[in-house]
Amino acid sequence: MKLPAGTSYHELRESFVWDIPARFNIGEVVSDAWAATSPDRVCLQHFSPDRRHLSLTYGELSARSAALANAFVSLGVQKGDRIALLLPQCFETVIAHVAIYKMGAVALPLALLFGAEALEYRLRASGAVAIITNEFGLTRLDGLAERLADLKHVILCGNEADAPGAVLFEELVCAHTSRFDIVETGPDDPALMIFTSGTTGPPKAAVHGHRVLAGHIPGFQFGHEQAPQPGDRIWTPSDWAWAGGLLNVLLPALMLGIPVVSSPAQKFEAEMAFRIMAEMKVRNAFIPPTALRLMKAVADPRRRFDFDLRTVTSAGEALGRETFEWARAALGVTVNEMFGQTECNFVLGSSAGLGVSKASAIGKPVPGHEIAIVDEDGNVLPVGEIGQIAVRRPDPVMFIAYFSDEAATGAKFAGDWLLTGDLGRQDADGYIEFVGRNDDVITSSGYRIGPSEIEDCLVAHPAVQLAAVVGKPDPVRTEIVRACIVLAQGYSPSDELAVEIREWVKTRLSMHEYPREVVFVDEIPLTTTGKVIRRLLREQAAAE
User: Fold this and answer.
1) Which residues pair with 311 in a beta bridge?
2) pLDDT of residue 307
3) What's the CA gap between 531 and 315, in Å, rounded?
């Protein structure tokens, strides 16, 4: 399942063969397999702002997860039951994940940034029988537990002794033996349930088998230039509740023996990101495009912070040429853009070391995955035509189904092609360019306009920190291009600046793509994964 040694992209594509064993358990390969041979090997390091950084070894991870698995069994949790994790990046999150996989239950990661309604929706839809959270998460659950018939257990990380109805995580671990017989699981046995980000509609619960981790290894090694290499140590600001944080970083790194750096912050801070990478000697990072754009505000980072990166990957939204070029100069490495989604992740990407790198393009199919640009019926389109980015099944990173939603699962496919809902085009060299979500494409005066290229052009303007582009209904043109702008520090909204920004796009792209309307906003609505929720911006535009 690992990426074979190869001297060229073509050679890797031609020689790759999937080899996933009939017995495969995520908890075993990210914990016990290493603990058996290298129990003192560090697997996790936690950054603390007061510099009291902590470490956890594979031996400790194996023992503590085994004790927690025994605790779950004692509580009556059974194979296939869903256990929710409402936690930040911390050791307890990893211990809980591993314990859940070992006992054959299903992990349901949830972001602490979710409000009460979002949490209730996900807990109810999943039928979660238990939830592990901290004191902050407990406030989010206030009043919810009694309305959720399936939720039987609330497990609390921390020292909140007077939390009614909750049991303490540490007490459960200490009360049970650290010996546990891992439940035998196959690649297709459910291991993980992740809700989609809900950028275009109600979130759906994508169920993944244990094979999903094996399927992510080639993409991880592709983007991180044949990882693991001596000295590799990885960090991401992305929440581990997101597929990007969990499957692009945490689990693959643990399986490959690469130490993972965790950090406590829930809100991204650019200065802190550079400090973490410097103090923790981070060599590899996964940083979403929105975070990279925010990091541009930090002046002269290579002089101010002693970081030494070997690889950086990015995914979640289009990176764009402007951010790509800035990152290469400011970070000292070429960002390898990757592509995927909750249902089917890490299938497209770049690897500068193998010569697969092109500004404004995602990259090429990762070895082991078959990708095409297709129409709504699954017909492969010619080079240069815009269509849906599609993935051919079977594929080990592909979800099993949407939980309890057979109709939605079926609608995700056209024949053997999984339709991502993301539009792209492929060039003659095989590179795929991201155009935008199918729902995000703007129809104006007969043109179909993707927002990504315009947003990339906008953030190149010195006054623009973040930008989001949507279509606004128009009786003459069907839609006009509307740009929502968060200004960089030192700039103030004005009619003159709006005109300047419009002209900036008009002269750099085309007459039909420039934003006829520019609005200045304090913030842009983002999902917990950093993706723009254009649906909300479209609704706001239509209501005006």
Assistant:
1) 284
2) 97
3) 10
Picking from 58, 30, 493, the residue whose alpha carbon sits closest to that of residue 217 is 30
| Position 462, amino acid | P
Q: What is the pLDDT of residues 419-431, one digit of tens each?
A: 998 889 999 999 9
CA separation for the pair 306, 472 (Å, rounded):
45
Class of domain 441-543 as given by CATH: alpha beta
160/12 Cα distance (integer angstroms): 52
Structure confidence at residue 152 (pLDDT): 94
User: Which bin fits 326, alpha (ψ -120 to 50), beta or left (φ > 0)?
Assistant: alpha
Q: Look up tokens 């009556």; give the residue.
A: 76
Q: Would you say residue 320 has pLDDT above 90?
A: no
Q: What are the start-end ranges of the H helices in 257-298? A: 270-279, 289-295
How far is the C-alpha of 200 from the C-alpha of 411, rounded, in Å?
Answer: 15
Vertex 154: Cα angle to 151 and 157 (nearest 5): 150
Say if 61-209 and 441-543 have the same CATH topology.
no
Which strands form 464-474's sheet, in the order they lie side by side? 464-474, 478-487, 517-520
Cα–Cα distance, 124 to 126 (Å, whole number): 6
Burial-class residue 149 by CB neighbours within 10 Å (0-12, 13-18, 19+): exposed
Q: What is the CATH number of domain 61-209?
A: 3.40.50.980
Q: Tokens standing for 230?
A: 């001596």
Q: Distance (Å, rounded) from C-alpha 510 to C-alpha 494?
A: 24
Domain boundaries, the chain: 61-209, 441-543
pLDDT for position 52: 92
pLDDT tens digit sequence for 58-98: 999 999 999 999 999 999 999 999 999 999 999 999 999 99
Closest alpha carbon to 212 in 180, 185, 184, 182: 185
CA distance 388 to 378: 9
Q: Respond yes or no on whether the N-terminal peptide bond of residue 228 is cis (omega within 30° of 0).
A: yes
As a whole number, mean pLDDT of residues 528-535 equals 76
Q: How is residue 111 written in tokens?
A: 């972001």
For residue 451, whether the previous peptide bond is cis, meaning omega lies within 30 degrees of 0, is: no
Residue 329 — φ and ψ, nearest 5°? Answer: -75, -45
Percent of the chain with pLDDT over 90: 74
> What would the pLDDT profile of 436-448 be if each residue is shown by its tens digit?
776 677 877 666 6
Asked if pLDDT for residue 203 goes beyond 90, the answer is no
Please report the pLDDT score of residue 447 as a whole number. 62
- Only one residue has tokens 């089917």, namely 344
Q: Is the dihedral of CA 417, 420, 422, 428 positive or negative?
A: negative
Pair 233, 283: CB distance under 8 Å: yes
Specify the DSSP class assigned to residue 399.
-
Helix, coil or strand: residue 178? coil
292 Cβ contact list (under 8 Å, min separation 6): 314, 319, 323, 326, 327, 335
